[in-house]
What does this fold into?
Amino acid sequence: MYANPQIEQMNRSSLQRLQLERLKKQVKWAQEKSRFYQERFRSVGVSYTDIHTLEDISRLPLTERSMLARTHFMDWMTMPLSGVLRVQALPEEGESLTRAYTNGDIAHNVEMMTRCLTAAGVMNASLVAVQGDLSDSRLLDIQYALEILGAAVVPMGTDYHQWLRMLDMVGADTLVSTPHLVLQLVIQLQTAGRNIVDSPLKRILCWSRQGVQDPLRRHIQERTQARLYDLYGPAELGTAGILYQCEAHNGYHIQEDYYYPEIVDFHSDHVIHEPQHMGELVLTSLAAEAMPLIRYRTGQAAMLEEEPCSCGRTLRRIITPLSAV
It folds into this structure.
């Protein structure tokens, strides 16, 4: 199933034309409106006028998490607070990163998430339990996308008493959660003398803040006997829908109409073009409005897979060390 076949099955040349058009606009927008990127571009002597091809993206400076952590979010932003729809401080690894979203940013995030959910088999007949604090913007995107698809949504919060009570009331076939909350649910059910395997649960969308594929994945798979689909949602990216798994489970499709991927050497700014070579995944937003992200070093080891996927999607995939095993 496809949520947006026009994009998910777009031919390569058309997609690259769309990417280049959006890249030029995004870099121009960042340079003109974001103080952070004005200074970054000036420091290396580059301008949006230097972008003529997709390969020219390598002329732009890389962005690292430490830079964003030291930057006031208003300097990163491209507009005053009166121009945004949502502002949130997202806790991550002991610190908090503030993100702002326009109406367009939220719409893009929800569109990406509908693709993730649909690729995992979620549809209007699905009954989906969502673990976590819905004050988190990333979970809000997931809930909105589920409602657009017509799925029944059961917000379960973070209280395990609520989890058990809601599970008794409804027989969810899908769970959206983080690896740690899934394991907490398994333990709480076990403490109550129950086994999650006996529930109707058949799929889990597990979104991780730390990595594309969490090392707890195999343990969760064994304990739940459910089909797992990984999502990647660190605070810097502001959504959990940029990378997603289809039913083939052969790597992670990239939302290439919204994010341009590169593989860069871990110890330099050298872009790796050779196939089957691992490096660091670098992402550039192509349609962000409030807080564009130019050549962000994710810290994730990955390689780009150019071969077509058996699911029929033409969006390229990344392969991680764990998924390559």
Q: What stands out?
A: The mean pLDDT is 93.
